Amino acid sequence: MQLKEFFKNIFKSGAKPLTEGNIPIQLTQFAIPFMAANFLQALYGAADMIIVGQFTDAAGLSAVAIGSQFVFMINSVVIGLAIGGSIIIGQLYGAGEYEEIKGTIGTMLTLFGIMSLAIMLILPLFMDGIVTLLGTPQAAFSAAKGYITINMIGISTMFAYNALAAIFRGFGDSTSPLIFVGVACAANIVGDLLLVGFFKMGAQGAALATVLAQGLSAVLSVIYAKRADYKFDFKLSSMRIERGKLKRLMRIGLPMGVQFSLTSISFMFIMATVSRMGGVVASAAVGITSKVNGFTMLPPMSFCGAISGMVAQNIGARKPGRARLTMLWGTAISVCFGIATFILLFFFPHPVIRIFTPDSTLIDATSRYLRSFSIDCVLVCLFFCMNGFFNGCGKTSYTMLNNAVSAFMVRVPATWILSSVHGASLFTIGFAAPIATAEAILCHILYFKSGRWRNKKGVI
What we know:
Blueprint: H1 2-10, H2 23-55, H3 58-95, H4 98-122, H5 127-133, H6 141-153, H7 155-170, H8 175-198, H9 202-227, H10 243-296, H11 298-316, H12 320-347, H13 349-353, H14 360-373, H15 376-392, H16 396-420, H17 426-429, H18 432-450
Helix pairs in contact: 1-2, 2-3, 2-8, 2-9, 2-10, 2-11, 2-12, 3-4, 3-6, 3-7, 3-10, 3-11, 4-7, 4-10, 5-6, 6-9, 7-8, 7-9, 8-9, 10-14, 10-16, 11-12, 11-15, 12-15, 15-18, 16-18
C-alpha cells in the first residue's frame, strides 16, 4: 500500500508543499519526474544527432554538434532566468505570498518575450561571423549556419517552453513539465524523421523540427496552466514588468543564466580546439560525447533541480536544517548513479556510440575522448547537488562565480595545455572536464563549511 502511494504521488500533478514529511521519499518523488523529463530532454537533443547521423555524414553531425552548442549558449540565459524565477516562486509559495507570485510570473514572461524578439531580429544578421567564430569546419559551414539561423528565428518557442516548466516546478509540480516535454520529444522525433529522413533537409530539418515541437509543447502548457491553480491567468493585461520583481528576478536568475552561458562557451572552446586538431571527425566525436553526457548527467541534473526546488520552499519557510539534509540525501543517491555510469562508459563505450553512428572511424575517435571524459560522471554528482542547494538558498551569484572560475580558469586553460602537449589526442583532452569539476567541488565544500549560505541575502 505504501509503495502504491509512493508511485501515486510521483506522477500527481499540481502544486505540492515540500516543507513537511520524509525528506528522502519526498525528494525522490520530486526528482523522478525531473529525471524522466530530463531523459526526454536529452532524447530530444540526441534525436537530432541520431537521425542526422543515419541520413547524412560526419559534416552533418558536425553542423548539429556545433550549432546546438551555440543555441544552448543563447537559450541558457533564459534557462538560468527561468530557474531563478522558479526559485523565487518556490520561496514565495513556501512563505504563502500568493499575490507576489502573480507579479513575478507576469514580469518573467514579459521579459522573455522582449528578449526573444530582440534575438530573432538581430542575431540572423551576423550569422556568417558567428559560424566562423565557432571554428566550424568548411565542410559543415553551410549546414551549421542554417541550423543556427532557424533556431534563432524560432527562439521564442524555446523561451516559452523553459519558462512554463520553471513555473510548474516552483509550485513543487515536476510532473506537468514531464508530460509536456514528452509531447515535445515525440513531436521532435516525428519531425526529424519527416524533415531529415524523408525530405532530406539535413541539419536545417532537425532545427525546424525542434522549433515546431517546442512551440506545440508551449501552447499545450499554457492551456493546462490556465485551467489549473498556478496563481496566474495568462491574460495580456497581466503581462507587464514590475520594477521590484524584475530586480529580484535579475538578482537571482541572471547569475544562473550567466553561469550556464559561460559553461557553454567553455565547451564551445573545446569544440573549436578539437575541430582544428582533427576536423569534422574530431568535432563530431565531441558532439556525440556531449549527447551521451546529456544522458549520463540525468541523475545529478535531476537531483540538482529537485534539491533546488525543495530547498527554496524550506528556506522560504525558515527551515535551513531541513534544506541542508535535502542536499545530503540528494548527493548520496546521485553518486550511486554516477559510479554505475562511469563503469559503463569507461569499459564499454563502443555499444553506446554505435547508437549515434555506424562509422567505425568516428566510433573509435569518440571512444578515446569518452573514456577520459567519463571520470566526470562521478564528480558532477557532487557538484550539481551542491549547486542545487546553494541555488535554492538564493546564492546564485556565488554559484555563477564558481562556475566561471571552473570554466575559464581551469577547463579552458586545461584544454589548451592538454591539446598542446606532444602526442596530444582526444583521450588527453577529455581530462579537462573532470579536472575543472574537481576544482569547483573543492570551492563548494569550502563555501558550505563557511556557513555563508545561511545568511538572509537572496531569501525572499
